[in-house]
Amino acid sequence: xxxxxxxxxxxxxxxxxxxxxxxxxxxxxxxxxxxxxxxxxxxxxxxxxxxxxxxxxxxxxxxxxxxxxxxxxxxxxxxxxxxxxxxxxxxxxxxxxxxxxxxxxxxxxxxxxxxxxxxxxxxxxxxxxxxxxxxxxxxxxxxxxxxxxxxxxxxxxxxxxxxxxxxxxxxxxxxxxxxxxxxxxxxxxxxxxxxxxxxxxxxxxxxxxxxxxxxxxxxxxxxxxxxxxxxxxxxxxxxxxxxxxxxxxxxxxxxxxxxxxxxxxxxxxxxxxxxxxxxxxxxxxxxxxxxxxxxxxxxxxxxxxxxxxxxxxxxxxxxxxxxxxxxxxxxxxxxxxxxxxxxxxxxxxxxxxxxxxxxxxxxxxxxxxxxxxxxxxxxxxxxxxxxxxxxxxxxxxxxxxxxxxxxxxxxxxxxxxxxxxxxxxxxxxxxxxxxxxxxxxxxxxxxxxxxxxxxxxxxxxxxxxx
Length: 466
Known about the structure:
The protein has 14 helices and 18 strands. The chain is α/β, with parallel strands linked by helices. Strands 1, 2, 3, 4, 5, 16, 17 and 18 form an 8-stranded mixed sheet that branches. An 8-stranded parallel sheet has the order 6-9-10-11-12-13-14-15. A two-stranded antiparallel sheet has the order 7-8.
């Protein structure tokens, strides 16, 4: 039996803050006891970690990543090996990535392909969502089988006609199936048919720079698609999870639906909270670094996103980590913004940026843990194994120094991408030590993990629907 004790830290979960010692046995949390009490003094272990003056928090759960994802004739730059290592450096100990069904192929073939990419390569634990690109009778039957084996969420796209796009009829059929089998439909909500018209018109006018990516993907078209997705889910009697919400008008649609008592959930991402169209408009071709979909919005949208996180109209912050190098990948879109691969790096930055939000007064410490750890674990059927520090939970634990200062930079990050979206930004707070199922992956700012430690984690259905 291997035992570790973490002593003297402030243990923060979504529910509590307590100065406690944490006992870990065989990869799980065995007990907590208030620091300095006889109960804590009775904890014995081969390894002791001193967390005095530090936070002890659950490992982050990033419910939206795209490792090795094919897009626009290239691939996301992070492999499961490099991406999960970078996640660990940033205090994230579980990712849920997206397996992709190709049009004409089966869900099973897509899932098997992603298992093959990830197996034996991950530094931390991982699960899968399934992107459903081709709704037909066989696909619908397969959805039932996937739910039974722990792939309990299915993503559809109202954007990208000719690639991932589903029409309203296909979306409704998948939602009806999810209503029956307990699955959760995740929606990329943008009106892709209308956006394609605006792209064509912008290029015809000679508007080719990266900033036009944001101008054609209008906030109103995100809001319209969000509204339509909500109503289709209501007709189907299915729950809905809207990914990467970026626009205040879309937040308003979610808030309205939740006020009506509908099972509708929303996530946003750090890029929408900390970056804006000012970045897309950076001179030269620099704006290409910030091309993602949904796009960055004007700065005034950020207040609505922060408010949504405080009022629980938005429940989760994930990254939509999908990195493409500036050199050789983003550059595919020089002279035509529509050819810039959509996606940004971020899996390493999320926990730190959200701690900065605590420092800045946007959210509380417990809300930080709620939106980054506990709620994604519940949303995707992994709680309390993941997302909290409690007896019986996996010992996915981060010792976090809330006073350390760092400057974010591509020079020092561990993501396999040649730029940082937050280059030069000074933030307060830094990961010091990370345990994954009790094993040290980061030890006092040194990588001590290895590819293959991370295991596939089957998931139960969304725990907000019980």
